[in-house]
Amino acid sequence: MGRGLRLLRGVVSTVPGALSLAVVLLALVVALAAPWLDLADPVAMGREVYKAPSAAHWFGTDNFGRDVFSRVIWGTRVALVVAIGSAVLSIVVGAIIGAIAGYFGGLVDAALSRLFDVFLLIPTFFLVLLIVALFGASLPMTMFAIALTTWPRSARIMRSQVLSLKSRVYVQAALASGASHRQVIVRHVIPNGIAPILTDGALLMGLAVLTEAGLSFLGLGDQNSVSWGRMIFEGQRQLRLAPWMSIAPGVAMLVLVASLNLLGDALNYAMNPQLRTRGGAPRRRGTAPPPADEPGEGHGAILRVDNLSLAYRVGRRQIVAVDGVSFSLSRGGSLGIVGESGCGKSSLGSALLQTVPNNADFLSGTVSIDGQTVLAGGRPIARQGRLRIDALRWTHIATIFQSAMNALNPVATVERQLVDAYRHHRRGASRAEARERAGAVFDLIGVPRSRLNAYPHELSGGMRQRAMIALSLMLEPKLIIADEPTTALDMLIQDQILGEIEELRRRLGLSLILVSHDMGAVSETCERVAVMYAGRIVESAPTSVIFSRPSHPYTRALIDALPDLTGARRKLASLPAVTDQATCLDACRFAPRCPHATDLCRTVSPPVVTLMDGHDAECHYAADFAPQPREELVR
């Protein structure tokens, strides 16, 4: 019940979805209630022929004196019966056969896939026309013929879903627990793959309405029922004398089919959370021209960020993921950004690269990379119609993604992906030159060149992550953003990867931002640490200072949660569950979880307290939490 209500809310959350659902429901109600409505007999002939629309006959009368409005209503009943019946039959048959083909694979999949192809090669309408002409015209036969010609669509969709789903852990767990193949298919595979088929089902209904109308127009429809297609056929001969005879059923069919198509899009939107949150084609944001006072390339810090804010739109809500973040990174320096999941550190990395999803908006901020401003006042900098960040990605600033298997193209070799990236940014570079550069980078990271011809699935987790490092180094950037580069790797490989990143940074003179939730990894790799909480940098200091004199309770909690392999056994610290941050935006955001919070923390936003040694902490009691008294300056 709850899932159905969520689906309904998702459908009506957009204007096209709400309108299309209203039209379809209205048509369904009218069709069901037709026998009990005070309508004229749709087949009764009268003396009032060719009567124009009036209060007595809303859509006029036809050449036999029949009420056109009544016939349109009864035609709606026929259209929906055919649409629903053929779509349900097509989905059921297609889902079952497609699930079998995808689940068992091998010869079964090959044979059924060829069957799909045969049906899809034959024009649908002509096959329906042949079946109805051979076996007789009736509503059941029409529904059967339409379903017989459209089920391969549902089968192909379900097959592709099952190919992806059958390797999931929960499916393998069900088999390991003793479930039969039939139970796995019915209970685990089909329910998780049915969403796109239901979406396509709405489109099939529209196709069924048009197909039935086409058959009736040709005289192959059910002669005992009132059909829109038959009405259009009869009215085409009277277009000059009584155009309403064709216009009324034509408009009704247009509205219903368009509504079914829009309803399919709305169902897809409601069932696909990625569409709801990231939504649609890339949108162009408002841009600004380059400022006149920027220092230019090669001057100042490699990265400057001032008051950067980023928010996501989720339905009617706005979630601020990065809120007023400011920091700078010196050339050749390394900065670790740490915090628990959801604190905004990955969103910060995406904001710096301007690779944020469509539902994200820059609220404010200025970002400069290597002396060139790429964001000013929350607006991307553009010159001659091109975003400046486009020219800086990979050549000046590059990223190491946290999931190499998802970031690498599974159907292309590693070499091809490296070569394509190089030639995309180095116009005019030959393929041989790009291949040599790829080999040189593999030599640099200590991977044999023979592995360049491997596909991502042929590499181990550590090797794939090294390939991602190679991709980031192809264009010799000056700044690398490593976003959780050791996720899902075992401890030994994590240590190797981090060591290699640090060695490359020192050897090549790179600047590094390491985004991680692992305080231990950051302590070994970075010179400075910025601690994020609820979209804010709550403490920033040199690494040695952060670990020896943490001045924010959240930083202390993160450090206390680190296991110590050499000291005495102790119970690791933990924090209470996260509360709604929206309730404490005007106070200290950590106050609901802080064991030291006072009434001041719960009512007043904390200032940024500057301590010694380049140490900043956003806490009312930062100086008190420092182990030694500090000379402070509150700005």
Description:
- The protein is an alpha+beta fold.
- Helix content is 50%, strand content 14%.
- The protein is built from 24 helices and 16 strands.
- It has helices at 2-12, 15-33, 68-104, 106-121, 124-135, 139-165, 169-176, 181-193, 195-217, 228-236, 244-271, 273-278, 345-353, 388-392, 404-407, 414-425, 431-445, 461-473, 491-508, 519-525, 543-548, 553-560, 599-603, 622-625; strands spanning 303-314, 317-329, 334-338, 360-369, 372-376, 379-380, 382-383, 386-387, 397-400, 479-483, 511-516, 528-533, 536-542, 608-611, 615-618, 633-634.
- Strands 9-10-11-3-12-13-15-14-16 form a nine-stranded mixed sheet, sandwiched between helices.
- Strand 4 (360-369) and strand 5 (372-376) form a beta hairpin.
Quick tags:
635 residues; alpha+beta; 9-stranded mixed β-sheet; 5-stranded antiparallel β-sheet; 16 strands
Helix and strand layout, with pairings?
Elements: H1 2-12, H2 15-33, H3 68-104, H4 106-121, H5 124-135, H6 139-165, H7 169-176, H8 181-193, H9 195-217, H10 228-236, H11 244-271, H12 273-278, E1 303-314, E2 317-329, E3 334-338, H13 345-353, E4 360-369, E5 372-376, E6 379-380, E7 382-383, E8 386-387, H14 388-392, E9 397-400, H15 404-407, H16 414-425, H17 431-445, H18 461-473, E10 479-483, H19 491-508, E11 511-516, H20 519-525, E12 528-533, E13 536-542, H21 543-548, H22 553-560, H23 599-603, E14 608-611, E15 615-618, H24 622-625, E16 633-634
Helix pairs in contact: 1-11, 2-3, 2-11, 3-4, 3-6, 3-9, 3-11, 4-6, 5-6, 6-8, 6-9, 7-8, 9-10, 9-11, 10-11, 16-17, 17-18, 18-19
